[in-house]
Amino acid sequence: MTGPPKDPATPAKAQLPLPLPVFTPSYERESFIVSASNEAAWRAAQTWRSSRELLLVICGPEGAGKTHLASILAIDGGTFCSAEAPPSENRSALILFDDLPVGEPKAFLGIIDELMEAGTRVVLIGNGSPATWAGGFEDLRTRIESAPRATILEPDEALIETVIAKGFRDRQLEVDRSVVVFAAPRLPRTFAAAHAFVARADALALNAKRGITVPLAQQLVDSIS
Question: In sequence order, which residues have a C-beta less than 8 Å from that of residue 85 and are 6 or more positions away?
Answer without folding.
Answer: none
